[in-house]
């Protein structure tokens, strides 16, 4: 890879070291001299985009190599050309870079090892440890047995070595149709571990491969390719999630059976499960294919690209993964925990701007008609070094409709009859008149301003409790704002009754598009992907759909946990 291709997000690479059982194992292995250098890998299958669950795995795989000055490999598990696509490979690289991963020159592919894997398969046939089976997938499934019943031997299990070698060679040459034959390991059809019941090593797939073209029409299965790829790359700690725990004995069996150059070991940890979302790539693909979302990077999706587009930061995702820790027990994490990490990081670093989501016009009757003033506005009070910017103030303004109430309750401190408020950075104003249309809808407010309160200062010591944001009607920029909610309206959308589908649990109000928002001019010029705070509203991110003079903003998250508040009310 070129240096340009490996630009790394270095701002996201330094979470605190948190103790866990994998770290303990690595430290003991180094201390005992069992290994000299830690070598880990992240082995994604390029059949979809990475999601937040993968982010946890990345933090573990890359984090261990980084923290112990080891080596980290990116290896694409490209053993199923039917589902793989270059788009997915490119997206995976981009996500890893964004999360701060640096694999240097160590980008590999399972397809790099096809010749070696084929030779090892021939080695097993010659040892009498593999055979060609004529049963189809359904027959193999039916004869595999259950957790309480042993499987049944294939009628082709005792073929001679010579016949198996001939058939396997002919499989490679393309003489048989898809599914007509497979190569299986000969282990034990009565094993209590079903993965030992003569697992399939190779299947026939007449499908052009993204990297090897039409050189191969037989492709190795994951269980045969994965461990051997680890061995070829001298991986020391092959870290994966708990669903592969039952596969570990088979992983070890292949390593011990074959003349591999190293003996890696597999370690499993609990996968990440989040409330109000799904983590299955198959289900995420359905959401995309059935147009339930706008794509893999839809800001409602739990994909890394979707979260990035929504405005989540790499640092907040890494912090979240660090907080939930690494354990051996499966559990489900509240989505609000992730949002809390996002909110904390954005509060520290996001620049502040003024935006009005639901504009209501305000006319300052006693303000000079042609006067334009400029006020200094803090870019971020949490980071004074970010400085200030100028905001233009004019006779006609927009405030948010939610900041006005004609008949307010007690302790209401925003604009209302008889209540004076402070316009952020500018002046005190007081309501003088309300303009309504024929249907009684409020269309405009008339106010007077106090010239002595310039910059928000109190001229005579009086206290004003309410401060609201505003945008100049003359200089403000129209914007589209997309407000997102949970994609699903139940905590566990996967849990459905028989005859029902997880898509039935989708939240019909997960997206609200506001076309007539107004923002200060500075927001029109920020770069796509930049996370900012709309003062008093929440955090937003400029979307890639923005056009010159027509910005689009995705709402990343509110200033407070509004979802939890609504759930408590319910």
Essential attributes:
570 residues, 7-stranded mixed beta sheet, 13 helices, 27 strands
How is the secondary structure organized here?
Elements: H1 21-32, E1 39-42, H2 52-67, E2 71-76, H3 86-98, E3 107-109, H4 114-126, E4 130-133, H5 137-142, H6 161-173, E5 182-185, E6 200-204, E7 218-220, H7 222-232, E8 237-241, H8 248-257, E9 265-269, E10 272-274, H9 281-289, H10 304-310, H11 314-324, E11 331-333, H12 335-349, E12 351-353, E13 355-356, E14 359-364, E15 373-378, E16 388-393, E17 396-400, E18 421-423, E19 428-436, E20 442-450, E21 466-468, E22 471-472, E23 477-484, E24 511-519, E25 531-534, E26 538-542, E27 552-558, H13 562-569
Parallel strand pairs: 1-2, 2-3, 8-9, 10-11, 12-25, 14-20, 18-21, 23-27
Antiparallel strand pairs: 4-5, 5-6, 6-7, 13-24, 14-17, 15-16, 17-22, 18-19, 19-20, 23-24, 25-26, 26-27
Helix pairs in contact: 2-11, 7-8, 11-12
């Amino acid at each position: 890879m070129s240096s340009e291709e490996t630009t790394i997000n270095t701002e996201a690479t330094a979470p605190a070291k948190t103790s866990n059982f994998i770290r303990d194992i690595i430290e003991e292995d180094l201390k005992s001299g069992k290994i000299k250098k830690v070598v880990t890998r992240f082995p994604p299958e390029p059949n979809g985009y990475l999601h937040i669950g993968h982010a946890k795995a990345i933090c573990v795989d890359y984090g261990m190599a980084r923290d112990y000055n080891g080596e980290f490999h990116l290896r694409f598990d490209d053993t199923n050309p039917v589902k793989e696509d270059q788009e997915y490979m490119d997206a995976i690289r981009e996500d890893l870079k964004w999360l701060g991963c640096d694999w240097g020159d160590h980008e590999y592919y399972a397809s790099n090892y096809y010749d070696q894997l084929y030779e090892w398969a021939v080695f097993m046939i010659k040892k009498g440890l593999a055979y060609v089976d004529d049963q189809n997938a359904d027959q193999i499934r039916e004869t595999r047995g259950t957790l309480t019943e042993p499987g049944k031997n294939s009628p082709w299990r005792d073929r001679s070595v010579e016949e198996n070698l001939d058939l396997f060679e002919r499989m490679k040459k393309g003489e048989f149709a898809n599914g007509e034959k497979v190569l299986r390991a000969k282990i034990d059809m009565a094993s209590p571990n079903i993965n030992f019941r003569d697992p399939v090593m190779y299947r026939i797939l007449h499908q052009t491969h993204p990297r090897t073209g039409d050189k191969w029409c037989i492709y190795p299965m994951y269980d045969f390719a994965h461990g051997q790829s680890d061995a070829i790359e001298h991986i020391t700690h092959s870290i994966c999630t708990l669903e592969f725990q039952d596969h570990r004995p088979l992983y070890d069996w292949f390593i011990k059976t074959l003349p591999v150059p190293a003996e890696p070991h597999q370690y499993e940890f609990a996968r990440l499960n989040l409330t109000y979302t799904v983590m299955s790539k198959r289900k995420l693909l359905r959401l995309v294919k059935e147009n339930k979302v706008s794509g893999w990077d839809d800001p409602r999706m739990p994909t890394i690209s979707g979260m990035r587009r929504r405005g989540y930061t790499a640092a907040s995702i890494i912090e979240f993964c660090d907080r939930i820790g690494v354990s051996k027990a499966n559990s489900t994490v509240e989505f609000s925990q992730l949002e809390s990490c996002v909110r904390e990081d954005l509060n520290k670093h996001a620049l502040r701007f003024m935006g009005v989501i639901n504009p209501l016009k305000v006319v300052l009757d006693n303000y000079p008609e042609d006067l334009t003033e400029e006020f200094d506005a803090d870019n971020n009070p949490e980071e004074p070094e970010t400085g200030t910017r100028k905001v233009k103030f004019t006779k006609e303004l927009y405030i948010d409709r939610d900041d006005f109430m004609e008949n307010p309750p007690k302790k209401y401190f925003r604009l209302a009859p008889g209540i004076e408020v402070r316009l952020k950075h500018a002046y005190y104003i007081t309501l003088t008149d309300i303009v309504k249309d024929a249907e009684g809808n409020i269309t405009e407010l008339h106010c007077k301003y106090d010239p002595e309160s310039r910059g928000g200062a109190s001229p005579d010591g009086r206290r004003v409790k309410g401060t609201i944001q505003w945008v100049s009607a003359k200089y403000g920029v129209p914007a589209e704002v997309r407000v997102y909610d949970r994609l699903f309206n139940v905590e566990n959308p996967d849990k459905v009754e028989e005859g029902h589908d997880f898509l039935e649990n989708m939240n019909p109000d997960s997206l609200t598009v506001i076309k007539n928002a107004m923002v200060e001019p500075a927001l029109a010029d920020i770069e796509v992907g930049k996370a900012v705070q709309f003062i008093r509203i929440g955090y937003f991110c400029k979307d890639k759909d923005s056009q010159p003079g027509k910005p689009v903003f995705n709402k990343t998250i509110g200033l407070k946990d509004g979802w939890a508040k609504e759930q408590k009310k319910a």
